[in-house]
Write a structure and sequence with these properties.
Elements (H helix, E strand, L loop, with lengths): L3 H9 L3 H15 L1 E9 L14 E4 L3 H9 L7 H8 L2 E4 L1 H8 L5 H12 L5 E6 L7 E8 L5 H28 L11 H11 L4 H8 L3 H15 L4 H10 L9
Antiparallel strand pairs: 1-2, 1-5, 3-4, 4-5
Helix pairs in contact: 2-7, 8-10, 8-11, 9-10, 10-11
């Protein structure tokens, strides 16, 4: 049974950093010492979108994430493919069966070999249900070195429902908290200006409300668009709304 103290702790954190630190410690207590979470709202039939727009969290070492994410190995990872095509939890025994059957492509085998070199050999993946065909989130729970897949499956038989529930809760909390990604944070002025635009105010209205010149308001909007890598202010409003960067309380 899930400890209500654990639930309340996850519900009451104010930042993604606090949430992720708490969650990694909770999962480590079950035996999963390395996690990688990913979420995209920009998925298409041929792409997961720009990696700069992913919500990506991990406590794997940098040498792992630099290659798995930075070099794009994730795109050919068999369990990532499974997560894109399914919802729910899946034992990595599925992957072991694919290996034994020789059913992996050369690129997929390269990912498997890379994971073996980093002792990413046993675990579970959870693919979160989405209401949008363009959105998908999933988490890979890697068991600590020395645990076999049989050990993990036995653990899941006993605690899988609890682990799945905690991960679902964390996923929903991530979607509710501000997330900017590396080097993408807006200034408070840029957030405020975009917030007023989102409320339907004109540049002239915003200048009056904020005690600025219209040229300064336009400058904040331009810099916000640049920071968000979008072309229009409407796109900027949509993106910061997705990232929970506007209409929020500062902590």
């Amino acid at each position: 049974m899930i400890d209500p103290v654990q639930i309340n702790a996850l519900l009451n954190v104010a930042t993604i950093e606090e949430l992720w630190d708490l969650h990694t410690r909770q999962m480590a207590a079950f035996g999963f010492d390395r996690l990688i979470y990913g979420y995209t709202r920009y998925r298409t039939a041929t792409s997961l979108g720009d990696p700069d727009d992913f919500v990506l969290l991990s406590n794997h070492c940098h040498t792992y994430t630099d290659a798995f994410v930075g070099d794009g190995l994730y795109f050919d990872a068999p369990m990532v493919r499974w997560a894109l095509e399914n919802d729910g939890a899946c034992s990595w025994s599925v992957l072991h069966q694919l290996i034994n059957d020789g059913a992996l492509s050369a690129k997929e085998r390269k990912v498997v070999d890379f994971n073996l070199s980093h002792e990413v050999t046993a675990g579970y993946s959870i693919s979160f249900k989405s209401v949008s065909p363009r959105a998908k989130g999933a988490i890979a729970l890697t068991a600590r070195p020395g645990m076999s897949q049989a050990d993990v499956d036995a653990l899941w038989q006993h605690s899988g429902e609890e682990i799945t529930a905690l991960n679902n809760l964390v996923h929903l909390r991530i979607l509710s908290l501000p997330y900017t990604g590396p080097g993408r944070a807006l200034t408070s002025r840029q957030r405020e200006v975009l917030g007023w635009v989102g409320d339907g105010k004109t540049v002239q209205d915003i200048a009056l409300l904020m005690g600025l010149t219209t040229a300064t308001v336009e400058k904040h909007l331009r810099l916000a668009r640049q920071a968000l890598c979008v072309e229009t202010t409407a796109q900027a409003i949509l993106k910061v709304a997705f990232q929970n960067q506007i209409f929020i309380l500062d902590h």
